[in-house]
Specification:
Blueprint lengths: L23 H11 L6
Length: 40
């Protein structure tokens, strides 16, 4: 990037912080519960 760079973001929904997991331990539990992968 340069000092005069422009970033454009296109999204289908507005950002909602509640839609994201912010704690790694909670993330590990969710992934392991999905049955698709396992994280130690």
């Amino acid at each position: 990037y340069s000092d005069d760079a422009v970033l454009v973001v296109l999204a289908s929904h507005a950002y909602d912080a509640d839609d994201y997991i912010h704690d790694y331990d909670e993330f590990v539990l969710a992934v392991n519960a999905s049955g698709k992968a396992e994280i130690a």
